[in-house]
Amino acid sequence: MSKDEISVLVLDDEPIVTKRLKPSLEKAGYKVETFTRSIDALERFRKHPFDIVVTDLKMEGIDGIEFLTEVKELSPKTEVIVITGFATMDTAKESFKRGVFDFLAKPFRLSELKEVLNKAAEKIKTQN
Questions:
Q1: Do 53 and 73 form a contact (C-beta atoms < 8 A)?
Q2: Cα–Cα separations (whole angstroms), residue 56 to 3, 81, 115, 126
Q3: CA 4, CA 95: separation in Å to the nearest integer?
Q4: Could you read off the pLDDT of 28-76 as tens digits, one per residue?
């Protein structure tokens, strides 16, 4: 599986985050879809599981913990990367307990996210 076959769902309730990440991750070779509402992202994921999910934690409606729990139940092989401006030891522990691949505190550098995405993509390739 090549990198351009890896599908990535990005969920963040701040439109500026999704607008910045989508072109950058596509340029890096990923197939990317972005969402600003967790309910829309979950609806899409139920129809089409993604290889990697990048999600914020604090959102209206379904929060990031609920979202990642549902994602992992629907597709245990999907790797989830949490990005949050509300990083605490408790939220990090809870995320990892629920199967998160990695956890990045905002503000993060784009290069950090790409590095984590590349590691997740490598893991997915070795599983197939």
A1: no
A2: 23, 9, 18, 27
A3: 27
A4: 999 999 999 999 999 999 999 999 999 998 888 888 889 999 999 999 9
Torsion sign over Cα 45, 120, 18, 106: positive
* pLDDT above 60 (res 2): no
Phi, psi of 101 (to 5 degrees): -75, -45
Residues 79-128 have pLDDT tens digits of 999 998 877 788 888 888 989 999 999 899 999 999 999 999 999 989 86
SS (H, E, C) the chain: CCHHHCEEEEECCCHHHHHHHHHHHHHCCCEEEEECCHHHHHHHHHHCCCCEEEEECCCCCCCHHHHHHHHHHHCCCCEEEEEECCCCHHHHHHHHHCCCCEEEECCCCHHHHHHHHHHHHHHHHHHC
Q: Which amino acid does the sequence have at 23?
A: P
